[in-house]
Amino acid sequence: MMKSSSSSGILLARAEAFLRLFSILILVFAAGLIGFDSQTKLIFSTIKKTATFRDLGALQVAVYVDCMAAGYNFLQLTRGFISAKFKAKFVNLPYVTDRWVRFLLDQGAVYIVFAANTAALQGCMFAETGESSFQWMKVCNRFTRFCLQVGVALLAGYLASFLMAVISSLSAFFLFRLYSSKHFLLLKPTN
Question: C-alpha angle 22/150/128, rounded to 5°?
Fold first, then answer.
């Protein structure tokens, strides 16, 4: 019985590492796609206008949040690799406290990435449809390639949010399996 429990724990840890690595790649892809995307058009045959992510504050926030989330997942991946390879604790915290901190940080990262992508999507919808009551013009009819690449990056950001939500559920599993199923917030005996 103990052998099966430890092997399933190893499989879950490997799945978490794979999901973290995949979410890092997707987050870097999304941030790079938005950050390096620009398109220049000639307006009224004399004025050059360039569309970049700096034109919309929500896209700037999405780029920075995606980069920070990728960095956070990289740090967690490194922590897991070091603790598995050298059988050492990365942070000198009690085990339960360490699991709570990781769970809360994973939850926060998911919510922040999802919120940043949703805010960027809302801003992009204004760029796509315009808003006559504010006298905002449609932008995506002129900068179609730019808008298409931003759309793909936002889809990638939502995919990364989903993967990070799965990682967060694994963190919740690793945390709450330490507690008794019969008594509220009472730790299981460690035997």
Answer: 145
Burial zone of 187 (CB within 10 Å; 0-12 exposed, 13-18 middle, 19+ buried): exposed
Structure tokens, 39? 């398109």
φ, ψ of residue 188 in degrees (nearest 5): -70, 155
Question: Whole-model pTM?
Answer: 0.84
Q: For 42-67, write each residue's pLDDT tens digit.
A: 777 777 877 777 778 888 999 999 99
Report strand pairing: 38-43 vs 47-52. antiparallel
Q: CA 10, CA 48: separation in Å to the nearest integer?
A: 56
Calculated CA dihedral for residues 36, 74, 65, 161, nearest 10 degrees: 100
Angular region, 102: left φ>0, alpha ψ -120 to 50, beta rest: alpha
Q: Which of 157, 172, 179 is nearest to 16 (CA)?
A: 172
Let me know how long the chain is. 191
First to last CA, the chain: 14
Which phi-psi region, left, alpha or beta, contains residue 185 (left: φ > 0; alpha: ψ -120 to 50)? left
